[in-house]
Specification:
alpha+beta; Aminopeptidase; eight-stranded mixed sheet; about 150 residues
Amino acid sequence: MQQLSQSDLPAVLEIETRAFCDPWPEAAFSADILQHAWILEVDDQLCGYIIYHLVLDEAIILNFAIDPDMRRQGHGTHLLSRTLSELEQSGYTRFYLDVRRSNRAAIQLYEKHGFMCLGIRKSYYNDPEEDAILMGKILTNQGNSHDS
């Protein structure tokens, strides 16, 4: 896992386009956004990325994708685990994200990492229109997670 750089952007955009039915446009990958983004490479090939935003003790996962050809091999689990671990070690105790209601694989991955459903955002996604599930993970003083 390493910091995403501008030179990684073409590969990230390729994965973004292939991974999502309504991908972020290239302009959304601004220098400010990329400050808090990591990539995962396997055999010198970029296979996934995660982009997050930090506010006080909160980390909000904005975008997270694994190359569709490299899914179901543990790469998503590895990238999410490492990201959460690094952020926890830096003092972040609250983690949030939105996920399409129909994305069962992602929801299961997040649940496996201690995220819980906190609510529904009606018609949050476009193309196709779909609700988002707001998920969160909140650490207690002992490092255990619970929902609030």
